[in-house]
Fold this protein.
Amino acid sequence: MTQSTLSAGIRELETLIGVTLVERTRRVVRFTPLGERIVDKARRVLRETEDLGDIARAAGKPMSGELRMSVIPTIAPFLLPRILPRLRKDYPDLKLFLREETSAAACDGLHQGRSDCVLLALPYVCGDVEIEPLFDDRLFVAFPDGESERVDSPVLAEDIDDTRLLLLEDGHCLKDHALAACNNPDLRGQATMMGTSLHTIVQMVDNGLGVTMLPEMAVKSGILEGTNIVVRAIEAERASRKIALIWRKASPRERDFRLLAQALAAAH
């Protein structure tokens, strides 16, 4: 739909109901308070409409038809390559559409109806949802070559050099999980936020620019191949994140989500 068509449709609706829904100036276009209420109601109506199709699919063959899943960037490249071939084999009638986005965007998309379920890491507040925990994903400290011995003993949180800590930028929940693992209130303000992806941060560490924290699934997936980085587990109360599948409460496709969760848990 073009912008002009959309604008004409909104004006026609305003004429039909006799109220102004959008404030228009030369520089700004915004919804009126009533317009915001109608938009919110319209979104709920659209979600209910989509549920009609979900109800029909749920009554038929399990794990079939279209399913839209959002996945956060610190999970997608490490878990999906292992699970997608299995899903294609076990559920050939399932058309899985994937969207990679941060936790905040994924949760918003779930409640707005843009996605059916979200694969993310907990703890993270995502509103009124059903949660199916899958597995724990331990956190490791990654050191440049020569800064740590290649030993199996864990690193104490207080021994991490917070002045050289490289973390993902704001918006990635792994940053919060890493800071929580350190259990150091001063670290939140001192940590250097530099990376937009774990692959970028790994290259920074390999070039001696600092240390970082990596989830176990990334390490097992070979993110350190071609580097001289040494990783050691963290000894702390919250030295892991919990991977989970979430979906809207009362969704008619709960059976599909439970089956998908079982497949994801088995793949890790």
